[in-house]
Amino acid sequence: MDTRVTDQDLLVIDEAQYGVVIDLVYASSNNIAGRIVYQTARCALHKDAAPLLHRAAELARSAGYTLKIFDGYRPPAAQRIFWSALPDAQYVADPSQGSHHSRGTAVDVTLLDENGGELDMGTGFDAMEDASHHDYADLPALVQKNRLLLLGIMLHAGFRGIKSEWWHYELPNSVSYPIIESTLVTV
């Protein structure tokens, strides 16, 4: 697995500049690890993914919504912590293979309404269960509509989704990017 030690490929995502809300879940203890994972929390993405995020935020705004970011770049050390907490490759990337978050090419998001409330997506972020899958059919029509809205925004911006997580979007060629060791986000 190709790894490089650099910050030069990452851009810090600024709420005002991108028109998004950032709530890095792993900077709190309310996550799958059950503890604070990010000691220094900054939202960052690969320089190739950041323009797509900007486009997605513009698309969301044009429809009357705001993107809320739960996670972006994730240090490999954090990925090892998550794998220890939930060693299930359906939901957590095996750190020996590398997470697309650790490449800076993946972002976890939802949509906020005009009052700043999260749209109902049927499950919470990081709910590692069948109901979080994009193709899970046993959901109310409003939840399916909300998920399709998010999916449409992110696909139109150039990202792709993954089957198991309604919140996860990444560059289509993420696997071709190297793992990045960065001091922008510390564990």
Automatic annotation (TrEMBL):
Cofactor(s) this protein requires: Zn(2+)
Pfam families in the record: Peptidase_M15 (PF01427)
Keyword Protease: yes
Catalytic activity: D-alanyl-D-alanine + H2O = 2 D-alanine
EC numbers for this chain: 3.4.13.22
Keyword terms: Cell wall biogenesis/degradation, Dipeptidase, Hydrolase, Metal-binding, Metalloprotease, Protease, Zinc
GO MF annotation, one: zinc ion binding
Transmembrane domains' residue ranges: none
SUPFAM superfamilies attached to this UniProt entry: Hedgehog/DD-peptidase
InterPro entries: A_A_dipeptidase, Zn_M74/Hedgehog-like
Annotated binding of Zn(2+), by residue: 101, 108, 168
Site (Transition state stabilizer): 74
Catalytic residues as annotated in Swiss-Prot or TrEMBL: 165
GO biological process, one term: cell wall organization
Cofactor note: Binds 1 zinc ion per subunit.
Recorded family membership: Belongs to the peptidase M15D family.
Function: Catalyzes hydrolysis of the D-alanyl-D-alanine dipeptide.
Stated name of the protein: D-alanyl-D-alanine dipeptidase
Native source organism of the sequence: Advenella mimigardefordensis (strain DSM 17166 / LMG 22922 / DPN7)
Gene: ddpX
